[in-house]
């Protein structure tokens, strides 16, 4: 058996173990074996089917999407620091969703689908802006442009979010506060089912781009000579990333650093080949988010820590470490 199948099988087994742990852990302890055998009591069965299972499935698809989009964007920009959060995609999606919540929260226009559309449009708008800025640069200047553009967008989105919080009602303010820290608390079957379908479509679009991303690493001129349509590849990744990240933010709020931490670590271990890196990142992102959400539900039980805080506490120091390694003065 080659290395790639071993890595993917190992990550899949680790994810299954994490799901079993997440299924059993929480304010109410559940036995996976009792649930599978049908010997669980009525309360345990209801908690499992109505609360815990949709939450675990949502954690899997959201983690896979954030990490997979991070791996794809790092390959597209040929920059290991590219990430949906750092580049402002999550902030842009978050700002549009916050606008939707504040403007339409109490009107007949408000709907779950409108919130999804707002997240998608916000992520797409930011992606187009950042991509246009990076296209005008090259070499190390492109890296600096990416980071500065992401910083500017995150700052503007944060300021606009503060204004929205100021004018929001008490109910809207509570919703914005919890949602802004990232949480899987509101996972329901109707939201999880939509996420499974649409995010799976976005992940499929990214997986279709694996071989082309490998060609792009040789440079656009060489890739074009090999028959790659770079513009079509860029459009596909922009749309897939915007759709997936926008939906993730609309459903769970901003969960930071998964798109940087997971693919960057796996790239150092597995190498730059995207035919292995993309599925491994998706599995690794799902694994990390399921573990982080289980910890968020159990560390301070019966209270719950927003999972976005845990991923930021993990990813923030790692990002600083990466910047120190890349800095010539350190």
TrEMBL record:
Q: Does the keyword section mention Membrane?
A: yes
Matches recorded under Pfam families: FecCD (PF01032)
- Membrane topology for this entry? Multi-pass membrane protein
Task: For this UniProt record, give its keywords in alphabetical order, as a comma-separated list.
Answer: Cell membrane, Membrane, Transmembrane, Transmembrane helix, Transport
Q: Which residues cross the membrane?
A: 53-73, 85-104, 116-134, 146-167, 187-207, 237-264, 276-295, 307-324
Tell where it localizes.
Answer: Cell membrane
Can you tell me which family this protein belongs to? Answer: Belongs to the binding-protein-dependent transport system permease family. FecCD subfamily.
Spell out the protein name for this chain: Iron ABC transporter permease
């Amino acid at each position: 058996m080659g290395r790639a199948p071993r890595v993917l099988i190992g990550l899949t087994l680790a994810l299954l173990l994490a799901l079993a742990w997440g299924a059993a852990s929480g304010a109410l302890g559940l036995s996976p074996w009792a649930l599978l055998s049908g010997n669980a009591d009525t309360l345990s069965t209801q908690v499992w089917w109505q609360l815990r299972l949709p939450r675990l499935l949502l954690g899997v698809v959201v983690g896979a999407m954030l990490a997979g989009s991070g791996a794809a964007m790092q390959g597209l920009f040929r920059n290991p620091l590219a990430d949906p959060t750092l580049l402002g995609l999550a902030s842009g999606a978050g700002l549009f969703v916050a606008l939707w919540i504040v403007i339409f929260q109490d009107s007949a226009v408000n709907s779950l689908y409108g919130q999804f559309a707002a997240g998608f449009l916000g992520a797409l708008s930011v992606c187009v802006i950042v991509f246009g800025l990076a296209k005008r640069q090259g070499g190390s200047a492109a890296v600096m442009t990416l980071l500065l553009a992401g910083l500017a967008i995150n700052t503007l989105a944060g300021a606009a979010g503060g204004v929205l919080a100021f004018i929001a009602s008490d109910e809207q303010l509570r919703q914005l506060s919890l949602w802004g820290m990232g949480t899987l608390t509101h996972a329901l079957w109707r939201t999880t089912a939509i996420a499974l379908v649409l995010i799976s479509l976005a992940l499929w679009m990214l997986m279709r781009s694996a071989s082309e991303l490998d060609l792009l690493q040789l440079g656009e001129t060489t890739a074009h000579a090999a028959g790659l349509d770079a513009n079509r590849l860029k459009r596909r990744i922009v749309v897939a990333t915007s759709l997936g990240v926008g939906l993730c933010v609309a459903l769970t709020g901003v969960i930071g650093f998964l798109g940087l931490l997971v693919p960057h670590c796996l790239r150092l271990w597995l190498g730059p080949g995207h035919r292995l890196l993309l599925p491994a990142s998706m599995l690794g992102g799902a694994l990390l988010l399921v573990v982080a959400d289980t910890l968020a539900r159990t560390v301070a039980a019966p209270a719950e820590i927003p999972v976005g805080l845990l991923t930021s506490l993990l990813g923030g120091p790692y990002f600083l470490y990466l910047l120190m390694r890349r800095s010539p003065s350190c």
